[in-house]
Amino acid sequence: MQTLFPWLILLLPLAAAALISLFTRPHRDLSARLSIGAIVAGFWLTLLLFALPGAAAQAYETRIPWLAAGGLQIDFGLRIDRLSLLMALVVTAVGGAIHIYSYEYMRGERRFSTYFACLSLFTFAMLGVVFAPNFVQMFFFWELVGVSSYLLIGFWFERPAAADAGLKAFLVNRVGDLGFLLGILLVWSRLGSVHFGELERRLAENPAALGAMATVAGLLIFCGALGKSAQFPLHIWLPDAMEGPTPVSALIHAATMVAAGVYMLARVFFLLAATPHWPAALHFLEGLDALEIIRIIGLFTALMAGLIALQQDDIKRVLAYSTLSQLGYMVMAIGLGQPGPAMFHLATHAGFKALLFLGAGAIILALHHEQDIWRMGGLRRAMPLTFWTFLIATLALCAVPPLGGFYSKESILAHAWHQDKLVFALAWCGSVLTALYMFRLVLVVFGGSPRRPRDAQPHEPSHIATWPMLFLAGLTVLAGGADVEGFLAGGAQGTASLASRLAGPLAHAPFVMLAGLAATGLGFAMAWGLYRGAYRDPLPARWSTLASALRQRLLLDAWYARWIGGSFEALACLASGVDRWIIAGAAVRGVHGSVELTGRLLRLAQTGKVSTYAFALGCGVAALLYWLIR
Amino acid sequence: MASWTIYLSFIGAALLLAVRPRDMRWVRGLALGTALAGLVLGLAAAARYPADPAAPLIVLARARWIPSLGIEYYLAADGISLTLVVLTGIASVAGVLFSWNVERRAAEYFALYLALIGGVYGVFLSFDWFLLFVFYEVAIVPKYFLIAIWGSTRREYGAMKLALYSLVGSALVLVGMLAAYGVSGGQTFNLIELARGGFSSGFQTWAFPVVFVGFAVLAGIWPLHTWAPTGHVAAPTAASMLLAGVVMKLGAYGALRVGMMLFPQGAMVWRPLFAGLGVIGILYGACVALVQRDFKFVIGYSSVSHMGFVLLGLMTLNATGVGGAVMQMFSHGIIAGLLFAVVGRMVYDRMHTRDLADLEGMALNRVLPFAGLTFAVACAASMGVPGFSGFISELLVVIGAWKAFPPLAVLAGVGIVAGAAYTLRVLQKSFFGDHPRAPVEEMGRGQGLTWPERAGAVLLMAATVVVGLYPSLLLDIIMPSLQASWMQAMLKGGQG
After folding, report:
1. Is residue B496 in a domain?
2. What is the tally of structural domains in chain B?
């Protein structure tokens, strides 16, 4: 059972995707049921694996030979340990809720069955990343995640914006993946294995095995996370990815796929933490280690995205930048050398951010696809259930006790405080921003009076959509009681009592906790002052330069489009011109032309007149005689 | 038994020319039957390989042919040949299916088609250099007529360019062949014996580039690639499928089987140059493909880019890279066939345009949903999405290149990113640029795909998926062949 269950968890969604796309596409309901059934079954099987005695305690693997070429031997296997089980639980629980919600949200869609096929394909790919026991298999599924994300972002490909967003997401991810692939190759060529367990063992035996390339290898692998988890400077795809259907944004671009980068970093943390060492060419970087760079990038992304989120008017884009910012916190936690808290925050964030997106989806549906928050307002009375679940998720995101988000974020902040006071101070500023942009959202959307056309009568979605929201709200409330860090660290469960864990932050780091609460309070107060009953955003009037820079996403997207997109295009045109005019034109035609020219010149001699030939003959004889007699 | 792939193809061609059945069903049936028989024979031979790991070569036929010159009729197969024989089988069956609508002079068309196939099988199974060269030339002639008679855009120009390039390549190969024959003592053209005998390093240093370039012209090596896009565009659908799918592999196969196997030291000397040209081909093909307006030119230049991976893989001179290159030959053969089938048969024969700007306004995905699915799968396979053969083969090439030339591996990786860019662009413009200029119902009237098109597409898609999911199917026959003693001399150089 211990080997059968993981295979089932992984393969059921694949089977569903295959069945739907091959057979059941005309039957909408059946297709949806297959897809939902596969992931819900996966959820229960994961729970069973947790419950099986000893299953979670001992890491184990199951594998079949897959590929052997030269010195490279790769198995296709599954690695079941605490880390992968936790992540599988997050994916199937949050994913299951979102699958069910999709059933309601996508009801009127022409390609309803195709949508579920793509969703199941994504689930399969994501679970493949989770259970991968080696780098090559992880890369395989990593790319597959990118493809299914492309399919789902561009699901409404009739809209140019959606098609372009899918393209952008895929290409930006590919850039990151290139670094990831090179990192894998570097590790493999130095350590002679791609298997995680084997790599860890070899590195433990000989910490200097990576030699001069240790830091470079770590950073190249981090490039993969840079793309998938949308960290600066590859963050630009995530906000555009909001062109996809809202449940997709909830599942892929909030809860799971973007978390894959953080998960991967946690999985290969031993590589990142290897003794820092630079090759001679990069000697001037000596003293800077990979984790330090990861920490800086995570922190920068968290702050930058938090700032940009302040001035977004599209409800989904606010949430997208908020996701970026929270991912920044997780990456920063990895950079602080703390994969445990990073995974804890990943788990809680998956729940409450998915909940926020589902709430946003309910609002968008109720308002007939209106996404501008300044045309909402007063929804608290019209949609009370959505309001309360949205509020719970907001409070969790702003780290208000005793919700799950509080514990995970406090844990990260506490580690930052112990290691680096500057990082802590900046992260604290990020917390203020989080509270500010989230309460701005809540106040503008739900508070005040309605700012929409009078005939619109918003109402709650049906039960099929509200149950998943309630389920996620329940998870968000209860997550604080889960001892994720302890579980990952391998300690026996239930050593610390629930009460002592819940009071943990106060006992361990009272200052950090109070500072965190103060940040949330400060952000809330600023939002209350600025946005209570507001009809339009007051910031552009007060700080116009800053606000417009934030609205244009700090000009990064435009800059990328002009310089990188433009120069690539120019290069392509240049190559095409070279091909047409120089290689095919001058060289090939040149050869062709000179042969033809020779022929034409020789033809001039063939006049057909005997006198010409006689003259030529005479000249020839004269020349010959001259040469012989001389 | 595998040698019957050659004989059957020529017999089929001769029968078609001799009988010239009036009924189109007989013509097509005969062509399809012949191609299917070849595929079955190839698969059967591949399934039994390697019967004995100690003997990586299966001798199929051996007889003296021109004893005074030491020329033998020597047919044999190892895993590399068999991989390409299976590829030829699959591509030829699919090509017949996609030629189902050829009405004009159909008997001659299929006869030339089968003759081309027979020549290709012959090249892949010859272990006598002279015999290989004969089959190599045999394959060029039908190709010229297929393009010049049944082709489309600028067909005479395309056919002439292709023929001239092929002949220039052949001339180089001929020079190398005669020189090697003379230097080795004028006893034999047997490739294995020549390889065992060995050549002086001085001779190898000049013979290798001559022979390698001679073959690599047909593999589309940069800058001698320009025949490929024009030839592909000019050729009728099935011929461009074979051209990109199989004929370009002739070049790569010859470069490996003859150039590298006989002159391993020469390969060591020259490999930085040719690996560099391979990488230039990868990047250059991708860049040019990005800005093409003709649908078929995009695919044509993508072939140049993908064949760059083959050349790079060969020049790594290590088992992973060379194995990856052979796998990439297979993979690109299938995928290019699929892409050309969609462009030439499914789209062009119905819409009569290949201009991407025009296709954007045709809502093709809704008019031809099955073609849209096929093209999406082909594009996914082409840009190396996991689960398709291209992913594994390009990964193996990059891994092999990493061992030999790390900077080139990085550039090849950049080529994979650029590959995604042009592939997704053409995918969106062709099928998913959903701004119909006329009602969809009107455009789609009476244009559903026929069963041969569906069958051919399914065959090719299945091939790339099966190999992509379980690459050992191919690797388990390719890798043992690289262990043969006559291949090891070449691979020893690539370990560093």
Report:
1. no
2. 1
